[in-house]
Amino acid sequence: MTEPHHEPVPSPAQQQALAQAIARHAQRPGALLPLLHDVQAALGHVPPALVPGIAQAVNRSRAEVHGVISYYHHFRSTPAGRHVVQVCRAEACQANGSEALAQAAEALLGCAMHGTRADGAVTLEPVYCLGLCATGPAVQIDDRLHARMTPERLAQRLQALGVAVTAGEGA
Ligand code: FES
């Protein structure tokens, strides 16, 4: 006999966040995105356990809801680290070396893009334009924007936040 498929069960806090988001948005057309935004604002991520309830509330399939969550880089399915580092990878920053900076960030943090380090200190993400296109490469660390970022400055900023970094190449 095969084991029944175990679905994750939402915690009471997760259920409450969803109920509040549904109360605010579910009756409106186009409710899915605002609902996801509210859930993430309340919980820091959109837990997979809430996907069935979200799908039901907006009359969409679970696959559609999963698709939207993975399409928009803004949404997370797992909790972020204590700090979030976002490296701009849009065109203007690419022309100013953001690819090399992104690789340097991965090496400094010991963490791949879209990943959270095992110690939970930091999540590293790409972002597509931070509005600092003329002064790239741009990085956002938590709520703060930084222009003309270099691997050296990134390492300094992270260390100032108490995030341990690996010495970069050539350091
Ligand atoms: S392209 Fe990077 S800030 Fe706009």
UniProtKB/TrEMBL annotation:
Pfam families: 2Fe-2S_thioredx. InterPro entries: NuoE-like, NuoE_N, Thioredoxin-like_sf. Keywords: 2Fe-2S, Iron, Iron-sulfur, Metal-binding. The keyword Cytoplasm does not apply. Its cofactor is [2Fe-2S] cluster. PANTHER family: NADH DEHYDROGENASE [UBIQUINONE] FLAVOPROTEIN 2, MITOCHONDRIAL, NADH DEHYDROGENASE UBIQUINONE FLAVOPROTEIN 2, MITOCHONDRIAL. Belongs to the complex I 24 kDa subunit family. NCBIfam families: PRK05988.1. This is Formate dehydrogenase subunit gamma. It comes from Pseudaquabacterium inlustre. The lineage of its organism: Bacteria, Pseudomonadati, Pseudomonadota, Betaproteobacteria, Burkholderiales.
